[in-house]
Amino acid sequence: MLSYLRGDLSLLRLSGAQAALEITPHGAHLTDWTVAGTQPVLFLSPNAVFQPGKAIRGGVPLVFPWFGPKTGDPRAAQHGLARVREWDLESGTVTPEGECSFVMSLADDESTRAAWPHAFHARFTATAGRQLRMALEIRNTGAAGFTFEAALHTYLAVSDARRIRIRGLENVAYLDKVDGGARKPGESVPIVFTGETDRLYVDTASACTIEDPGWQRRIVVSKSGSRSTVVWNPWTEKARAMADLGEGAWTGMVCVETANAGADARTLAPGGSHVLEAVIAVE
Ligand code: BG6
């Protein structure tokens, strides 16, 4: 395993015959998955900041235990506490078949309990070859039940967000964050971006296909343990306002997030666990 510093964070990189996979303990955040001989599938912003306490723009931020702003606490960090905590490396291995795998874990401590008063154990497993398989397991290690949201906030690299099409969410209702969270009926056609888009698709277990004519590739995101999917692209104005993205970079990304958000928040009894899984394949 290669370990190196980027900004103030240490990055861990595995290379196998099938793919390379990179993660930082900061948030157990994947920063690269590249299938051998092809261009990266995960988008990482050229302006991403690698600093303790900050979320990295791109890759796969892990969202837990709340998605977006915390209900009833507008001062709390957006998207939960997990993406800015230091996770433990349980293992980093390359299989004889050339797949790379990281297992990372995070348990509650004084600082997490100050932000969210529950005992938990989170384990993130990422295995990459020609496909990337991600699993986020949340276990309730306390004496009382809790309810949480989570997401694999996957940034995918595309040739031009204005030219891609996303299939798989036709006729699925969504909450439109660009329109104050209004609930809208699903559209009968694939998603094409024509402006800022920030949607929480509800009650869907469907796989999504991102068709990218510019790079002549299709990215398929399949999932389990999830009934919500978030589709996000900031477009020009919002990207300009985000220093770690910037005006030029937003066309190269789209987020298709495997989530448990909103009405899909999960409740765990003491001892209970839940696994949120996504498999990303490139065709
Ligand atoms: C998406 C949200 O999941 O993440 C958006 O739906 C949000 O509303 C985006 O802007 C990025 O969030 P952040 O906290 O990483 O800037």
Please outline the major beta sheet: 8 strands, antiparallel
**Could you name the ranges where pLDDT drops below 50 across 5 or more consecutive residues?**
none
The portion of residues assigned to helices is under 10%
Mean pLDDT: 97
Helical segment count? 2
Strand content: 35-45%
Helix and strand content put the structural class at mainly beta
Element order: H for helix, E for strand:
EEEEEEEHEEEEEEEEEEEEHEEE
Total strands: 22
Radius of gyration: 18 Å
Distance between the termini: 28 Å
Which ions, cofactors or small ligands are bound in this entry? 6-O-phosphono-beta-D-glucopyranose
Shape: globular
Description:
By secondary structure, this protein is mainly β. The chain has helices at 110-115, 235-241; strands at 2-6, 9-15, 19-24, 29-35, 62-63, 88-94, 100-107, 120-128, 131-140, 146-148, 150-152, 155-157, 165-167, 174-176, 182-184, 197-202, 208-212, 217-224, 228-233, 253-260, 266-268, 273-282. Strands 5, 11, 12, 14, 15, 16, 19 and 20 form an eight-stranded antiparallel sheet that branches. The mean pLDDT is 97. It binds 6-O-phosphono-beta-D-glucopyranose (BG6). Residues 55, 68, 78-79, 153, 177, 198, 230, 232, 257 line the site of 6-O-phosphono-beta-D-glucopyranose. The site of 6-O-phosphono-beta-D-glucopyranose has 10 residues, from β19.
